[in-house]
Amino acid sequence: MKGAIYTRVSTQDQSVDMQISDLRRYCEQRGVKIYKEYSDQGVSGIKDKRPALDELMGDARKRKFDLILCWRFDRFARSTKHLITALEEFRHLGIDFISYQENIDTSSPLGKAIFTIVSAIAELERNIIVERIKGGIRRAKEKGKTLGRPKTLNLDAKELISLRKRGLSLRKIARRVNASLASVHKILSKQRPRTVGNKQGTNQKIGVY
User: What pTM did the predictor assign?
Assistant: First the structure.
């Protein structure tokens, strides 16, 4: 069996030596041949892009090894969501995952059970967030608040023109009629100036602006 080792430290003055030493010993004791060691040094765990981790994921998708070993979950994943997504992808690729410190091995029945529990917790968190959002929307509606983007279908062009002629800015008009600035601008821009005759027989343009 071929394994890939992943290690990470957040700052340059830290060392991955202890992580590598523990993981090498683990592989030796279990007869795992190390394919490659991937190490991100001085890279924060919250970053979306990590050179060594990106390389490892690319090699995993090419099935270059059968097993991924990390020293601890937080050395590998930046969040629970990231961890679950990665573990799910490894499962589809037929690659096992081992976290040394947590003593979790997804190739074992217990490891698979723990993975299922972690997945369930993550799903529960997502559902709780969704319910909170729905609850907030219900409370807002009960208080009579208008949700979503302002509607433009019922805007009265004549009213907008009248407000504009009174010297109100587009922003103030939008607030007055409870509409978006873009909606007000769009309606007023369609109102082209028209020409009417004055008492002296000359033509005079009456427009919006």
Answer: 0.55
Together in a domain, 187 and 101: no
What tokens appear for 118 in the block?
């972690």
Q: What φ, ψ does residue 61 adopt, rounded to 5°? A: -70, -20
CA-wise closest residue to 173 among 153, 193, 151, 161: 161
Cα of first residue to Cα of last residue in the chain, in angstroms, is: 76
Q: Which amino acid, residue 87?
A: L
pLDDT tens profile 107-118: 888 777 776 776
For this structure, is 10 an active site residue?
A: yes
Are 99 and 9 part of one and the same domain?
Answer: yes
Query: How confident is the model over 116-161, as pLDDT tens digits?
Result: 776 667 666 767 888 888 888 878 777 766 655 555 446 778 888 8
Beta strands 96-99; 67-70: pairing state: parallel
* Residue span of the structural domain in which 35 resides: 2-105
The number of domains in the chain is 2
Q: Are 77 and 40 in contact (CB under 8 A)?
A: no
Q: How far apart are CA 95 and CA 3, in angstroms?
A: 9
Check 10, 107, 183, 189 and give the catalytic one. 10
